[in-house]
Structures are given as C-alpha cells and as structure tokens.
From TrEMBL:
<dbReference type="InterPro" id="IPR044068">
    <property type="entry name" value="CB"/>
</dbReference>
<dbReference type="Pfam" id="PF20172">
    <property type="entry name" value="DUF6538"/>
</dbReference>
<dbReference type="InterPro" id="IPR046668">
    <property type="entry name" value="DUF6538"/>
</dbReference>
<dbReference type="InterPro" id="IPR002104">
    <property type="entry name" value="Integrase_catalytic"/>
</dbReference>
<dbReference type="GO" id="GO:0003677">
    <property type="term" value="F:DNA binding"/>
</dbReference>
<feature type="domain" description="Tyr recombinase">
    <location>
        <begin position="243"/>
        <end position="418"/>
    </location>
</feature>
<dbReference type="GO" id="GO:0015074">
    <property type="term" value="P:DNA integration"/>
</dbReference>
<keyword id="KW-0238">DNA-binding</keyword>
<protein>
    <submittedName>
        <fullName>Tyrosine-type recombinase/integrase</fullName>
    </submittedName>
</protein>
<keyword id="KW-0229">DNA integration</keyword>
<dbReference type="GO" id="GO:0006310">
    <property type="term" value="P:DNA recombination"/>
</dbReference>
<feature type="domain" description="Core-binding (CB)">
    <location>
        <begin position="130"/>
        <end position="222"/>
    </location>
</feature>
C-alpha cells in the first residue's frame, strides 16, 4: 500500500486485485484521501481501500443473473458510494442538485458511464419479485436465529418439513410470487389436503403441520423483508383427532422379554446400551445418543448422566437436567463411558432399535416402540408414588405450578429410582 501526494492532496495508490479485473479495467487505482495531512491520510487509507473492495464486490454481484442478488448488489454499491438506494421514480423526485450529485458520482471511462454503477445510483435495478421457492431460499437466512445450537442432524430434521411444505404447495398451486397468492390459492391447497385426509392417506395432524410450516416461511419472509403483504393464511387448519400416544411396556414384558438372557444379543453394542440405559432413566433416544464422556458421570458418589445442550439444541430449557443411573442402566453405561459416537448427531438410533425389536418379537404390541420405555419409566414412578415435581424434573417437563427451591437432591432421587429400577 502506497500513499503519495498528488497536487495538494494525499492519495492511496494500489494495484487492482486479479479478482476484480472484470469490473475494473485499470491496473492501478489512485484513491483520494481528501486531506493534505500525511498522518491523517495514513489513518484513512485502510478504510478507503475497504470501501473500494466493497464497491468492487457489489459490482461483481451486480452482474449476477439472480434478480435478488442484483438488487442487493445495487443497494450495497449505492451505500459504498455514499448514497441510499432509491428506485428511479424516487430519484426523479429528488432536488436537482441531489440528482446531479448522483450522476457525477458515476465512474466514467472513455466518457462512458459505468452501467452497473449508473443503475445503482439512479435506481434502475428493479426490486426482485419473490416466488414461493425463492421465499424458502431467503427463509434459511432470515430465520437463522431458530437454528442456533442445533446439531447437523437437528438442522436437517428442522429443514425437511419446511422444504416439503413448499414443494407440496408448488405442486398444487404453482410457484407463484408470494405477493400474488390469493385466498383461492390457499383454499385450493387446503382442499388438496382434505381430499387426502378423506382418502385415508394422511391425518389432519399431518395436514396442519404442512400448513403451519408453509405459513411460517411466508410470514417470516414477509416480515423480515418488510414487504407489508396481507397474506391469506387464516382459518385453514383442520380439526385434529385424538392424538395417539405410544403405550408403555409392562413391567412383566421388560423383565421377562427385553431383559431375558440373550434377548438383545443381536443388537449392536452401542444401541443395546442405549436401550438399557433408557429403562431406568426415561431419557429421550436423542438425549441418550448425545451423551459424552463429560456428561456420563460414573466416578461420583451418585453415578448420573447430565442432559445438556452440548453440540445440539435441547427440546426446551426444562430438558436440561441430571438423572441418576441405577440397575441395568448403570451397568450399560459403564460399558460406554465415552458415549455413543455411532449415533451421536444422527437420527438412526430409534429406527435401528425398533427394527430389531420388531424382527425378534420383542414389541409387546405393534404400537410399541423404543420410546415406550420412556412411558414405562413414567408409569413405574407414578405407581411408586414419586412426587410430581421429581417426575417432571427427571423427564425434563414443565411443571404446571411455580418451581420453588432447588428440588430434591440427586441422592434422594437416586434412592427413589433405585426402588423401581430393573
């Protein structure tokens, strides 16, 4: 970087990086630092060069075929030149001296104004029209605060239903501009789901989820892009039927079938340990799979696991908790004190375990699954008369009253769980 005086003013002299040769024909640029003080010039040089880079980047983006990218580039370029981007109609309404200032700021080589710069400063880049599929692309950035702390697998499972909802809408209505979505379009989409519900293909719950995810995408883009649209999204949901829950395994089934000698030998070691760990803790499968050497604490007066947002997002803030290890669960986790890398941040554990249980006749009914062990743990605590506060703390559930005090000690909870442990 070289600073030299030209006339009475210091300038920054620097070669144009290769990246910008397509938008900057000069090999070397001289940038006025608007001062005759060398000390002040040196303090301003880095900022002046950063602004030049910013302008070149905006000019590169301005050549994009993507309308959204071109529009954002025009706004960035106008800002880099010291102006706010205005559409051509608004520029025409400015005072004459302001218009002249914009025109004079447009670089010109060989008496030819640069078209990208002219479009940015005179507002001739049209604001892009956002289609439903484009809205989904924008949504990932606009809603990024919802993904903070999610693991790679959690992020994939969060994105999938939103992609599905947009795909379904486009298949039924088309890839319309969101500003042109009508009430009839939404009613047509609803009718599509009603037909599928009546045909027994899906439940009302599934249809409502699709409508909710589509609405989330459209409303987020409308709000964050400040579009000011009146989206016709109201009164579309279906009345949901009774939600089916997984039945718990009976104590006899756990004792005589799941814990029978050799019953789980065909299941890989990590999956088997996670299943056994669930019996006396009631953790969610994803919580067990996420355990690490730091959260499996065996060398304590009371061995326990700690459910924490380590590399992943918890279901709610209530889900952060400690659970004592007892019986077969303690013995299982002793075999894997470092955790379960085979299933960490992957959504395959439940599928692997359920497939094994089904193939080996270890499901008490067709509606049972690995998750039924969580329900079974709750039923055993309830039957043993364990306090509601303790049960909810162990399960990571919200308490329907004010939480006073710290709750039961880990030692006390371990004593209670040991009485019902297998």
């Amino acid at each position: 970087m070289s600073i030299a005086k030209r006339g009475r003013t210091f300038h920054l002299r620097r070669r144009v990086p290769r990246r910008y040769r397509g938008v900057e024909p000069r090999e070397t640029v001289w940038i006025s630092l608007h001062t005759d003080s060398e000390m002040l010039a040196r303090s301003k040089a880095d900022r002046a060069w950063s602004q030049m880079i910013e302008a070149w980047e905006a000019r590169l983006a301005g050549n994009s075929e993507d309308a959204e990218v071109r529009y954002e580039a025009a706004r960035d370029l106008a800002r880099a030149r010291g102006f706010r981007y205005l559409d051509a109609g608004s520029v025409a309404k400015l005072p004459v001296e302001d218009v002249v200032e914009r025109v004079e700021a447009i670089p010109a080589l060989a008496n030819q104004p640069d078209p990208v710069e002219a479009a940015a400063l005179l507002g001739t880049v049209p604001e892009p029209r956002i289609t439903v599929t484009k809205a989904l692309q924008l949504y990932w950035t606009l809603a990024r605060e919802k993904t903070f702390g999610k693991s790679e697998d959690q992020l994939r499972r969060w994105e999938a239903p939103r992609k599905k909802a947009v795909k379904n809408f486009v298949a039924v209505v088309g890839n319309k501009e969101i500003a042109n979505i009508t009430r009839d379009d939404m009613l047509d989409f609803r009718q599509h789901w009603l037909d599928r519900i009546e045909a027994g293909e899906v439940t009302a719950n599934s249809a409502n989820k699709d409508l909710i995810h589509l609405g989330d995408v459209l409303k987020t883009v409308n709000t964050m892009k400040r579009l000011g649209l009146e989206l016709p999204l109201g009164e579309l949901s279906f009345k949901e039927g009774e939600k089916l829950t997984r039945p718990p395994f009976s104590e006899d089934w756990i004792r005589t079938r799941l814990l029978a000698p050799g019953a789980l030998d065909g299941l890989n070691g990590q999956a088997r340990a996670l299943l056994l760990g669930m019996i006396n803790t009631g953790y969610r499968p994803s919580e067990g799979a996420a355990l690490t050497a730091d959260t499996i604490r065996l060398d304590c007066d009371v061995p326990h696991i700690s459910i924490e947002p380590e590399g992943r997002q918890l279901k709610s803030h209530y889900a952060r908790r400690v659970i004592p290890l007892t019986g077969v669960s303690l013995e299982a986790l002793k075999q894997y004190p470092e955790g379960f890398p085979r299933y960490r941040n992957r959504a395959t554990l439940s599928a692997v375990v359920n497939k094994f249980l089904r193939a080996n006749g270890l499901l008490e009914t067709p509606r049972h699954s690995m998750y039924s062990l969580r329900h079974a743990f709750e039923d055993r605590m309830l039957a043993a008369g364990i306090d509601d506060r303790i049960r909810r703390d162990l399960f990571g559930h919200r308490l329907d009253r004010e939480r006073y005090g710290k709750g039961a000690s880990l030692e006390h909870v371990a004593e209670l769980v040991a009485r019902i442990a297998f």
